[in-house]
Design brief:
With 181 residues, the chain is α+β, with helices and mostly antiparallel strands. The protein contains 5 helices and 7 strands, in the order βααβββαβαββα. It has a 7-stranded mixed beta sheet.
Length: 181
């Protein structure tokens, strides 16, 4: 039996913000205010945000900025009750294919040093650790790991995404071998 919960992913809209904020407050110690999300989806022409829904319930969301040939992942969050069902995988897959379609060659993000499950997810998609931002999460005095993925339009990356897509479509829960390809 698969532990993948299939979701539909659409652009985030203003009417999603109450559900986004409920997840945001349960996920992050220091969270964005709803006005920040509203500004991102309404005023930032470089920002693209997406909602993951299952049976009309918003179960996760993500955001990315695409600036020239670089994509910066700003956030990925999954409702605590829906974690472990590969929703983060589906959101990240969507972001990476979207970024590539918008002309990005590189992708970057920051992730808590303590968040090993997120780091492992990013590694599946070709991200590598390239540095540390000291005390990036100031309220908790926690460092951020800076991660980069490159050559998003290269054949190796396209093959990696194709394999990840096939695994997600088949409902395969163990995608660890994808880190090696």
């Amino acid at each position: 039996m698969s532990d993948i919960l299939k979701v539909s992913i659409q652009p985030l809209v203003e009417s999603d913000l109450d559900e986004v904020m409920a997840i945001e407050k349960q996920t992050f110690k220091t969270y964005w205010p709803s006005t920040a999300f509203l500004n991102e989806i309404s005023n930032n022409r470089l920002a693209f945000y997406f909602a993951a829904r299952h049976e009309n319930v918003l179960v996760g969301y993500t955001g990315i900025w695409v600036v020239l040939d670089e994509a910066h992942i700003t956030t990925i969050a999954v409702h605590p009750e829906y974690r472990g069902k590969k929703i983060g995988d589906q959101l990240l897959f969507h972001l990476m294919t979207f970024a590539s379609s918008k002309g990005a060659r590189w992708a970057t993000l920051e992730v808590r040093e303590s968040n090993l499950s997120a780091q492992n997810l990013y590694k599946k998609y070709g991200f590598i650790s390239v540095g540390i931002r000291k005390n990036y999460y100031m309220e908790e005095s926690e460092n951020a790991v800076i991660m980069w993925a490159g050559n998003l339009r290269g054949e190796n990356f396209k093959l990696k995404l194709q394999k990840l897509k096939e695994s997600l479509e088949k409902g395969e829960s163990n995608l660890q071998e994808m880190q090696q390809t």
